[in-house]
Amino acid sequence: MAIRSGFSSRLGFVAAAAGSAVGLGNIWKFPFEVGAGGGGVFLIMYLAFCFLLCFPVMVAEIAIGRKTQRNPVGAFKVLGFPKWSIIGKLGLVSGVLILSFYNVVAGWAFGYFLEMIMGNFTIGEHFGEYIKDVVKVGAYGLIFMGTTAYIVSKGISGGIEKAAKLLMPTLVIIMLSLVAYSLTLDNAWEGIKFYLVPDISEVRLEVVYKALGQAFFSLSLGMGALITYGSYVGKNENIITSAVLITFADVGIAFIAGLMMFPLVFSQGLPPNGGPGLIFVTLPGVFGSLGGGLGIFIGSLFFLLLSFAALTSTVSLLEVPVSYVVDELDIRRTKAVWLVALIIFVVGLPSLIGNGYSAMFTNFITYLGDEKTTNFMDFVGHVANDTFLPLGGFLISMFAAYIWKKPKFYGEISKGYPGFENSIWSKYLGFGVRYLCPTILGLLFILTVLDRFFGITVIA
Ligand code: PHE
Questions:
Q1: Closest ligand 1 atom to the C-alpha of 316?
Q2: Are 167 and 305 in contact (CB under 8 A)?
Q3: 3-state DSSP assignment of residue 374
């Protein structure tokens, strides 16, 4: 059993969990998912899912982690329900899959930092070729995974969280400045309209489950990352307050990223549904238009901070399988870290080469009832983010409500929040884990699998 060092203060845990939540999911993925999902409609669904469905799951994950002080597989065994450790096993698979492609994108972001330093503002126009250069972006990915592994192996993520407390506000300031700048451009308000005013005709089942997957992904939920982090939380901490802070930080940064991107996209006359290249295609030109020195400074700082935000997320992603291997298989931490990181890097190779370099992984799969082929990276996203994470959330809420049950679940929360059981939060949480999450997440899981993978559209 690893010795749990514990976070030094409440802010230590909140900063680490927020560091896990805030990452490429907010700044890279959120804007292009909004763009593909028709704008305002996606935004509203995403917000509703974060607060109504994800929040109760987040509280349950942290409580399970703190109670058991274990990794997501061991946690359910300690509670006396070994069969439910299937949740943790599913989480391990999700974590490995997510980190495998996440690391590739983090490599792009890091590479863009170097391009910006060199003043290469036209890189956005060559994004397609850039990601095809697998030796170069592969090397960046390797550097990124190596850095993540190094941090996890030394158990020094505490230092990273401290740095993040300074760096993340800087990123937010840059983003807010870009929001202000973008609003002065032609067509900016078209972008704002697209983002904020919902067009009801865009409501499709696909938009619903993409928004759900995005909410879970962005909040790092459904795979036990917060069970793992929760295992380091002190008993006198208020889990509810922590969860509120984490959720607002994450949702707030995603919201700002959208405000920044859509005016820029519309002012450049680009389609908002440009897919995963959206920020990489749009932003370099914007930095270039700021003028040489300033463009280099802001552009490189932006991509450096984005890489940093990604790093606090990759650390939490790697920590999940590593804590499992260390606790349950009794392998030394350093060895476990490098082994797991290597495996994940290899699992990520098809995602790396499936962006134009290898035809087989670029046109990887065509689902039943679909005309388009999906590349490997998107396929992994469909399986892990959009399907497994909400499934994990469904199981966690069922477990907390009906297996672990109220007295123990609420008892754990009450340790750091004395009046909890009589507060409005307990009603909100109870309704969430007992009724809302199981029904909606369960139903959406079935509909998603049928629609996405089998082309069976139950609801048009
Ligand atoms: N939430 C992270 C992001 O938005 C990604 C992540 C998902 C991290 C799941 C941990 C677990 O970038």
A1: 10
A2: yes
A3: strand
Ligand 1 mutation pick, 32, 61, 168, 220, max ligand atoms within 8 A of CB: 220
Q: Which domains, ranges and CATH numbers included, belong to the chain? A: 10-350+382-441 (1.10.4160.10)
186-196 pLDDT, tens digit per residue, is 999 999 999 99
- The atom number, within ligand 1, closest to the CA of 21 reads 1
| 107 contacts 144 by C-beta, under 8 angstroms | yes
Centroid of chain to Cα 404:
27
- Element containing residue 277 per DSSP (H, E): none
Torsion sign, CA atoms 385, 386, 388, 391: positive
The helix (run of H) or strand (run of E) holding residue 408 is: helix 406-414
| Sequence-ordered alpha helix ranges (H) in 348-375 | 349-353, 359-362
Percentage of residues in the chain having pLDDT higher than 70: 97
- Atom 11 in ligand 1: which residue has the minimum CA distance? 220
Measured CA to CA, the distance from residue 179 to residue 169 in angstroms comes to 15
User: By alpha-carbon position, which residue is closest to atom 7 of ligand 1?
Assistant: 220
**Which residues face 374 on adjacent strands?**
365
The pLDDT value given to residue 6: 61
Which residue, by CA, sits nearest to atom 10 of ligand 1?
A: 220
Q: Is 119 exposed, middle or buried (0-12, 13-18, 19+ CB in 10 A)?
A: middle
**Amino acid (one-letter) located at 364:** F
Half-sphere exposure of 209 (CA within 13 A, CB side): 29
Q: How many CB atoms lie within 10 A of CB 443?
A: 13
Burial class from Cβ neighbours inside 10 Å (0-12, 13-18, 19+) for residue 271 reads exposed
1 pLDDT higher than 50: no
Q: Cβ < 6 Å from ligand 1: which residues?
A: 20-21, 23-26, 98, 217-218, 220, 223, 225, 313, 316-317
- C-alpha of residue 58 to centroid of ligand 1, in Å: 13
> In this structure, how many other beta carbons lie within 10 angstroms of the beta carbon of residue 421?
16
Q: Which residues contact 343 (CB under 8 A, 6 or more apart)?
A: 96
CA of 186 to the centre of ligand 1 (A): 34
pTM: 0.96
50 C-alpha to ligand 1 centroid (Å): 14
